[in-house]
Amino acid sequence: MNKQRVGIVGHRGYSGAELIRILQHHADVEPVLLEHREKTDTGAALRRGHLRTTIPCTGEAVKNEGLTAVFLATPPEVSMELAPAMLQAGARVIDLSGAFRLGTPAKYAAWYKEPHTQPELLTQAVYGLPEFCRKNIAGARLLSNPGCYPTAANLALLPLVQAGVIDRSAGIVCDAKSGVSGAGRKPSLKTSFCEVTGNFSAYSILKHRHVPEVLMISGLEEREFSFTAQLIPIDRGILETIYFRTTASSAEELLAIYEKCYADEPFVRLYNPGHLPDLHGVAHTNFCDIGVTLDASTGRAVVVSAIDNLVKGAAGQAVQNMNLMLGFPEVEGLL
Amino acid sequence: MNKQRVGIVGHRGYSGAELIRILQHHADVEPVLLEHREKTDTGAALRRGHLRTTIPCTGEAVKNEGLTAVFLATPPEVSMELAPAMLQAGARVIDLSGAFRLGTPAKYAAWYKEPHTQPELLTQAVYGLPEFCRKNIAGARLLSNPGCYPTAANLALLPLVQAGVIDRSAGIVCDAKSGVSGAGRKPSLKTSFCEVTGNFSAYSILKHRHVPEVLMISGLEEREFSFTAQLIPIDRGILETIYFRTTASSAEELLAIYEKCYADEPFVRLYNPGHLPDLHGVAHTNFCDIGVTLDASTGRAVVVSAIDNLVKGAAGQAVQNMNLMLGFPEVEGLL
Amino acid sequence: MNKQRVGIVGHRGYSGAELIRILQHHADVEPVLLEHREKTDTGAALRRGHLRTTIPCTGEAVKNEGLTAVFLATPPEVSMELAPAMLQAGARVIDLSGAFRLGTPAKYAAWYKEPHTQPELLTQAVYGLPEFCRKNIAGARLLSNPGCYPTAANLALLPLVQAGVIDRSAGIVCDAKSGVSGAGRKPSLKTSFCEVTGNFSAYSILKHRHVPEVLMISGLEEREFSFTAQLIPIDRGILETIYFRTTASSAEELLAIYEKCYADEPFVRLYNPGHLPDLHGVAHTNFCDIGVTLDASTGRAVVVSAIDNLVKGAAGQAVQNMNLMLGFPEVEGLL
Amino acid sequence: MNKQRVGIVGHRGYSGAELIRILQHHADVEPVLLEHREKTDTGAALRRGHLRTTIPCTGEAVKNEGLTAVFLATPPEVSMELAPAMLQAGARVIDLSGAFRLGTPAKYAAWYKEPHTQPELLTQAVYGLPEFCRKNIAGARLLSNPGCYPTAANLALLPLVQAGVIDRSAGIVCDAKSGVSGAGRKPSLKTSFCEVTGNFSAYSILKHRHVPEVLMISGLEEREFSFTAQLIPIDRGILETIYFRTTASSAEELLAIYEKCYADEPFVRLYNPGHLPDLHGVAHTNFCDIGVTLDASTGRAVVVSAIDNLVKGAAGQAVQNMNLMLGFPEVEGLL
Fold it and tell me: Domain B4-146+313-326 - what CATH class?
């Protein structure tokens, strides 16, 4: 069978490297590396094999190479710059940045602190959280891959919000912790080894730009959703501890809601009462693991949701979306 | 000047080792090591110096050595076993365990899942959070050193609860993260390197035995205070992210309350708005660092409180209490 | 095609878990878990799927289940206890311990400090370093999988020893560093998180029990090979820095020897001069990466050899050996 | 008693921060911060206390402030730029860089790959390894503080070289490992958290610029001393594993040589046979810990030498030198 060729822009970053790792073993596609900036590597370290050739990051190159799809593992401003030419060249685009997630240029400007340069594309973009948007994804030409924090939050919250078992008036607290790869590969003091190791810090409280993505998908109001992003001294993984008051009377009742919602989902796993997910359980996988604790006498519930930020929170979910867009088995390359 | 001799039981554990480190440089006391169980070390690693002699852990030895005070850096059941003889031998006792914190045998039994064997001592014990109990500490014969989590929580919450600026009906969430030394030095799978490194997990949700200590000191009700204890892959440090709704209208207003309360406190530091504490800032110190974020439009506040669990959360605060009990400068050995 | 069933004893350990991970995606086999001791897990954490059933660890069970091969990821004394029954039941045995590596009971007793209980099996065992013993492996009934340190050392040294370019009279120094998983999963103070993190220590100098394996395969004498085992605060990976004097006049000359020797080897990779392997390059892979530095004016050479101790140093190489024994493609499940 | 004022340039770096930490508790001096470049901090994080004022980094400021000594915790090119004005202003200079270590401009140019801009100062500089250069240090006006690797290497090698018990013809191997702070605080990909954590790599083999410092002090020839610098995923500490052949017949014999040499040294500690130093033992201290293993039958010896690279390998040793230069007790501020 002929493999389809798909491009990767941003393959030197952490999400891009993860895309390569996944797509190299994918039965239906073959990855091609697109070079956005000048090539900076001066020589191959490995003597044999694994030499990577790259093609220029242009619409023409995309056309010549016959790329069916292109992954943009790039910052939002680069994604806005590159997406139009890729689409025009006939490739379907899967963007891993926040460029096309927020629906309107105004929202984008408010949370990303810069104007949106491709407002017309924004309206075409399909938000790619397969568990809730699957039917729209197949037809998408421009797919906006969800943010890492919103993926873990929405998978934990949406079934309960829809079921109406959360007392929204009391507010929901989402205390989120992420490994350092979520900050990207560009060197900075904040992600330097000596600054991070042995440390733990909150770097964004209440105003993280992933907040509107949760509100948009879950239907919550900003005042109902308090979100903190914190840095764990590990390379990968997101764990969110979510607090709310519930009308449910047991953990089992909440788990039954999840079970109904996720019965056929290949990448959501539930923990039995008394057990909770941790990051080792999801590392290097495309799973989102969810566990529940409930204090029946006071109606307080705590949900723990865990993903690998580079897989279900980025490259893995992007491949899941590609599988849906190109008609491959949804789990191909991801188990 | 003659240094007073003070004993340390449990000097092989992490809190005990920290006590040695601090007391070795203390101007007014000289540490003596008490051996609870059979001595297990078979030989000294270091060729010169630093050879430690230990004395038996008995009331008689305490009397013979003329120990003014004894630190019990031991599990609660051992502290209950040892405290009576130490007190009878005339030493003042500073207990770092949870044995004497909870006021009544019933509370102890409910949260520590075992009966209290020294109920009469329980009534004599003085809870040693200097910032709020200083006047009782000087006269204490049996001092109960606060737990690590409650220290960080109460220092963050008490001024605001007392000022009445927290909307208690909406509940307070305290999402706490601790380094691994908080679990003690006894080997276990849960604290094995390969299980902890690269991982992050919640190990106690809503029902941690430090919860009643927060309630007892802060005056909050259990239903108002949701607490989660989580494990960070670092050796030391506790950071608590505390969420609540407030009637205050700015971070400055909350900080002013803290400032008034802690104006003369040597070990509480406040961060300016826009800045937040992290664990590097408090590592190896007796400080509790506090920072505040507030969303004025919705009344949601987030307070971050950080300590070193082995210092302000254990050995350092124990020495601070000893300084108050024995009439030394409160900060001696701790700056 | 019918998958063959192969058993895993010791599946709760780190090497055993890695065997499960690899074999679950293997095209030709299906893993079956054998329970050596009483089952201790009391309940499944995950609500759906991934429930593992285990069979008793007996020859009868091996026969009933029709197991073609059994992996023993167990300590040497357990491997000696279990191997006879497994072989008698008709399964081929791949032992990951040191039980059957050293050729004679006397050598085993000298280095493992206990008598060998299966001396007759020792003579049948085939040492499974595929790059040098491939022709013997296919017919092996009892395969002794190499130790992690010797795998990295022998792959780096053997080609050069055979080519006669090492000045053996000056001695070879092999300074080896390993991640903590090499010590197994049993909790101990030495592998506790707080003892290991932020630390680095040498734990075995000159007398490590992996030394005779290097001597046996490489033909070096003990006095020619100085070996130190050290603990890195990471979970997995071995890097060996190997020093010797050489008659070769350039790094290229040494690399040419490696290239000739490993031209057709799927799991040995060479680095170009000026580049050196690190542990990230081999993590979660079955590769052994080798790089060379040479100071031509003094004839001093340094070779760096890196593997993942759980993959090429244990489970991966064991599967590579199984592939050779059962006639599957050598790389199946390992790329 | 009046404290003398001493300046610190480079106080934002890791060695500079360590200087502040030590000097803040020093009985005889008071630290003053000198600002080399434009001040970049825009506001104080801490609300009360610890506000640092800095003075310009000029000779005039040094004179006005009456600084007795200035520490240069700066890169070599900055040290060469600043030292002349500091000296002219009457301050004694303690340089932590490699600028003034190598004796001749030619050697500097060969190993630091840039011309020396202050050749006349080079001849005045005194190399400050107190254990071997104490008598020259008191009178030094320009003190060159030793490199971190050479400190650990020379303290381990010099007594044995002087005693003539090393077979130099067989060569000495020094396999050195360092925490990441040794690379400084400037962000770079090589010291980014995600690149370092879980990794281990050799970054300089045979040609590290600290090699000539070892040769200069120990009297060894380059061909006799093979040195590799490697990166451990921890923040601080250097451990060197040193291999050689010896005419000594036991570890005790080597230890006796060390004991005689270091009998009165406050900062060198020896380990008994069967015990070896590790990095936890020296972290945050000014000690150099040394342990010995010897295989009597083959004459092979392995010495392990450990220091904290920021203390005995930088700031601590610099203060030790200042103490000697200014006539304070040698250990002041360092125990």
Answer: alpha beta
Measured between alpha carbons, how far is C68 from A26 in angstroms, rounded to an integer?
30
Spatial CB neighbours of D107, under 8 Å, sequence gap ≥ 6: D212
CATH 3.40.50.720 domain span(s) along chain B: 4-146+313-326
Subunit contact A276:B202, Cβ cutoff 8 A: yes
| Residue segments in chain B with a per-residue pLDDT below the cut of 70 | 1, 37-44, 47-52
d(CA A104, CA A119): 7
Residue B333: how many CA atoms within 13 Å on its side-chain side?
28
Query: How confident is the model over A18-23, as a mean pLDDT?
Result: 96
Residue A317 near residue A146 (C-beta atoms within 8 A)? yes
Beta strands (DSSP E) in C37-133 are 54-56, 67-72, 92-95, 126-127
Burial class (CB in 10 A: 0-12, 13-18, 19+), A1: exposed
Interface probe for B, chosen from C192, C236, C279, C284 (most Cβ of B below 10 Å), is C192
What are the start and end residues of each CATH 3.30.360.10 domain in chain D? 148-309
For residue A44, what pLDDT is reported?
65
Cβ separation of D234 and C197 shorter than 8 Å? yes
DSSP H helices, B65-210, are: 76-88, 105-112, 119-124, 130-137, 148-163, 193-196
Would you say the C-alpha torsion B133, B137, B141, B142 has a positive or negative sign? positive
- Separation CA B285–CA B311 (nearest Å): 6
Suggest the residue from A193, A222, A300 to mutate for an interface test with chain B (most B CBs closer than 10 A): A300
Indicate which residues of C carry an active-site annotation. Answer: 148
Q: Quote the CA–CA distance of C169 and C165 in Å, as a whole number.
A: 12
The domain over range D148-309 is classified in CATH as 3.40.50.850:
no
CA distance A177 to B62: 48
The model's pTM: 0.96
Please state, for a pLDDT cut of 70, what percent of chain D lies above it.
96
Q: Write the pLDDT tens digit of every residue in B81-107.
A: 999 999 999 999 999 999 999 999 999
Backbone angles phi, psi at A63, to 5 degrees: -70, -50
pLDDT digits (tens, 9 = 90+) for A289-331: 999 999 999 999 999 999 999 999 999 999 999 999 999 999 9
Question: Residue C327 and residue A36: Cα distance in Å, rounded?
Answer: 45
Structural contact between residues A34 and A94, judged by C-beta atoms closer than 8 angstroms = no
Using an 8 Å Cβ cutoff, are D121 and D103 in contact? no
pLDDT category of residue C128 using cuts at 50, 70 and 90 = very high
Q: What is the CATH number of domain B148-308?
A: 3.30.360.10
Of the candidates A155, A126, A99, A100, the residue with the CA atom closest to the CA atom of residue A307: A155
In this prediction the ipTM stands at: 0.95
Q: Which of A201, A236, A304 sits opposite B278 (nearest CB)?
A: A201
Helix axes D316-326, D14-23, angle to 10 degrees: 50
Mark residue C155 as left, alpha or beta (left: phi above 0; alpha: psi -120 to 50; beta: remaining).
alpha
Could you tell me if A210 and A149 are in contact, meaning their C-beta atoms sit under 8 angstroms apart? yes
> H or E element: which one contains A107?
helix A105-112
For CATH 3.30.360.10, list the domain ranges present in chain B.
148-308
